[in-house]
User: Which sequence fits this backbone?
């Protein structure tokens, strides 16, 4: 499964069942000092409400058209302004 990270403009592969906490920690380690810090993970699909993964959630495949996206603290701040 692939997780998109807009901050680093990279897509990173992970296996189904990987803990969200591990994914966020690993991405933050790779982004350290470079860009916005990752907060959590969301599954997104056009026309559907996004699904938020909590820290103990396991990575799941929701099917065709769903994309996994890292949400940063900067993204959260921008949402509050809108």
Assistant:
């Amino acid at each position: 499964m692939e997780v998109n990270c807009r901050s680093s403009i990279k897509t990173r592969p992970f296996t189904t069942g990987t803990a969200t906490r591990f994914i966020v920690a690993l991405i933050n380690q790779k982004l350290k000092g470079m860009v916005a810090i990752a907060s959590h993970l969301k599954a997104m699909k056009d026309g559907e409400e996004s699904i938020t993964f909590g820290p103990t959630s396991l990575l799941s495949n929701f099917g065709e058209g769903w994309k996994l996206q890292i949400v940063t603290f900067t993204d959260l701040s921008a949402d509050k302004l809108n």
Residues 42 and 52 are 4 Å apart (CA to CA).
